[in-house]
Structure formats: C-alpha cells, structure tokens
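Hi F.,

I've been meaning to write this up properly since the lab meeting, where we talked about keeping a consistent format for the predictions we share between groups. The idea is simple: the sequence comes first, exactly as it goes in, then the structure tokens exactly as they come out, then a line or two of notes. No screenshots and no reformatting. I'm using this chain as the first example so we have something concrete to point to.
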Amino acid sequence: MKPSRPSITSLPLSPDEERKHRMIKYSVAMGVRVVCLFAAILAPGWWAAVPIIGAIFLPYFAVVIANVSVEPRQAEVQRPGNILPVAPPPGGGGDRPADE
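Output, unedited:
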C-alpha cells in the first residue's frame, strides 16, 4: 500500500507566519486595553472600576489567547520521502563478502 503524500495545504504554518498571527492577536488585545484605560478616565464614579478591571486582567488573557493555536491546517508532518529505519540483514551479513 502506497502511503499518501502530504499536500502543501495540509502542512502546518511556518514559524514566521505563526508568530505573525500571535503578534496580531496580542496587539489587538492590547489595543482593547488602551481603550479600557481611556474609558476608565471618562467613566463617571464607580463605573470607572469596570474598565480598570478589564485593563488589569486583559494582559493575562491576551497572552493566553495569543498562544492558543487553532489552525485547521495543522497536521502531522512526515519525514521527507517517508524514510524508515532499516534493520540489518539476518545472519550479520554486513559489508563483508560471502566468500571469506
């Protein structure tokens, strides 16, 4: 049975692309944190506590969200050419000629 060859669409993202996606997620979350800080300044009275709490806990959630990878393309990467280890021949034949 011939093993199926992986296609380019079944391979996982490259490390550079994965890093780019994580940085975008983290940057968006930190942008929301800045909005929370401005909202805390503008909010009247005790309502300012809501965006302040968001600004305090958002960095933790931003890191968790950025590091969670949910890519549909992820698959197990196979070795090139489907290389398998080969056992030595029975009888210890090795590299020596048989007429010795």
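Notes:
Residues 34 and 55 are 8 Å apart (CA to CA).
Helices lie at 15-42, 49-67.

If this format works for you, I'll send the rest the same way.

G.
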